[in-house]
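In response to the reviewer comment on reproducibility (Comment 2.3), we provide here a single inverse folding case reported in full, input and output, so that an independent group could reproduce the run without further information from us. The structure tokens appear first.
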């Protein structure tokens, strides 16, 4: 009983060590961030946009795979909504495939958190501007406001602590600006202002501008449009304008409706890029470890392992009696070894030479006396056996195959007549 208890303690210790080394430890319980996903119902999600499109019978999809999985057809023009900065940075081959997808007649709508800073993009890698620039074929540069701001220290601090509400408006008479007079954006944290320029000779249209405040002397562009092949790319410097909290504000919904009506064909779909915000389907570590099937499987493995360790099989060597090596078995093993090495002809020659030595001892012959003549002159030997034995000996000396069993039988009969 004491041995089994000790074994149980050691088994539990090994199990604890296995868990400590191989399994990820649960992080402290905290609320998941409010991300710009098509399934998110909180302020910064796009679930309201998704339901609105579904209510209008517009096909909607959520992309949970890289851009290399995007498909298109000549009679269909889709709209892909991408929010930046991403949680999963796109690879270079993805951006190349995305560029080809847009050039085939589709539309890329980029909502970039440049002039606003939602909570979900805090801590984002500033290097996201490089893939964003390759995606939109634009160079982004931070700028300062022209003019001065005369605010007290207390007022400036209060402004930093409160979400900043920014209004922008369309510029020009494009279909995008039909019925759109002002669009509201919100930034929970301070944000910079940016300008964009083309990375090549293609023209870039600045189709939206910030409404200047009283102490600002000039307007700033916040929306850029450029064509690419048969498609186009729209970039807005705000990521918050179409989320659940602001979609119903001012003319935000009208602007989105104009974009979809202008860029999507009747057969086209609106695609939300959830993949690069972390909602991937090709591998999810959290989903794997939260799967109850994994827990049940591990539980069964632990139970069966403990039953084996604590079962009726005693964890010690069984007593084994010492057995002497059998002489006959040893001779048989040695014979098999030589049989695998010697040829039949060599074995035959050796058998006959041993036969000659035995005949000399029986007949009292010298080593120089002829054996075959002595045997032929002896009346006890059988002439037929002697002739057969002589033929087999000649074959063995010539290196030919010899029936060793027949040779040994002949030798035994001849020696038997002489004894």
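Designed residues, in position order:
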């Amino acid at each position: 009983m004491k041995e089994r208890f000790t074994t149980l303690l050691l088994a539990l210790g090994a199990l604890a060590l296995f868990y400590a080394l191989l399994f990820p430890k649960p992080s402290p319980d905290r609320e998941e961030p409010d991300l710009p996903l098509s399934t998110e119902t909180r302020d910064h999600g796009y679930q309201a946009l998704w339901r609105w499109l579904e209510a209008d019978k517009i096909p909607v999809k959520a992309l949970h795979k890289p851009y290399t999985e995007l498909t298109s057809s000549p009679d269909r023009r889709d709209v892909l909504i991408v929010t930046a900065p991403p949680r999963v940075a796109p690879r270079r081959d993805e951006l190349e495939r995305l560029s080809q997808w847009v050039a085939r007649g589709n539309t890329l709508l980029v909502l970039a958190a440049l002039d606003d800073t939602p909570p979900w993009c805090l801590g984002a890698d500033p290097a996201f501007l490089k893939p964003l620039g390759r995606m939109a074929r634009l160079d982004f540069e931070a700028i300062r406001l022209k003019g001065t701001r005369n605010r007290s220290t207390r007022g400036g601090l209060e402004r930093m602590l409160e979400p900043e509400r920014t209004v922008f408006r369309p510029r020009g008479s494009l279909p995008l600006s039909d019925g759109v007079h002002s669009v509201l954006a919100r930034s929970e944290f301070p944000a910079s202002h940016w300008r964009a320029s083309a990375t090549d000779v293609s023209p870039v249209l600045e189709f939206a501008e910030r409404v200047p405040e009283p102490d600002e002397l000039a307007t700033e562009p916040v929306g850029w449009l450029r064509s690419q092949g048969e498609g186009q790319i729209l970039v807005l410097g705000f990521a918050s304008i179409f989320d659940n909290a602001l979609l119903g504000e001012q003319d935000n919904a009208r602007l989105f409706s104009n974009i979809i009506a202008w860029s999507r064909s009747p057969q086209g779909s609106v695609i939300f890029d959830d993949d690069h915000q972390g909602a991937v389907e090709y591998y999810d570590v959290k989903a794997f470890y939260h799967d109850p099937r994994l827990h049940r499987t591990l539980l069964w493995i632990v139970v069966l392992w403990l039953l084996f360790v604590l079962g009726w099989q005693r964890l010690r060597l069984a007593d084994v009696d010492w057995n002497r090596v059998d002489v006959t078995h040893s001779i048989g093993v040695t014979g098999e070894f030589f049989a695998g090495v010697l040829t039949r002809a060599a074995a035959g020659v050796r058998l006959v030479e041993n036969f000659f030595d035995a005949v000399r001892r029986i007949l009292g012959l010298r080593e120089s006396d002829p054996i075959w003549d002595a045997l032929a002159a002896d009346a006890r030997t059988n002439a037929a056996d002697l002739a057969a034995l002589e033929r087999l000996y000649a074959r063995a000396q010539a290196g030919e195959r010899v029936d060793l069993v027949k040779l040994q039988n002949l030798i035994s009969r001849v020696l038997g007549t002489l004894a």
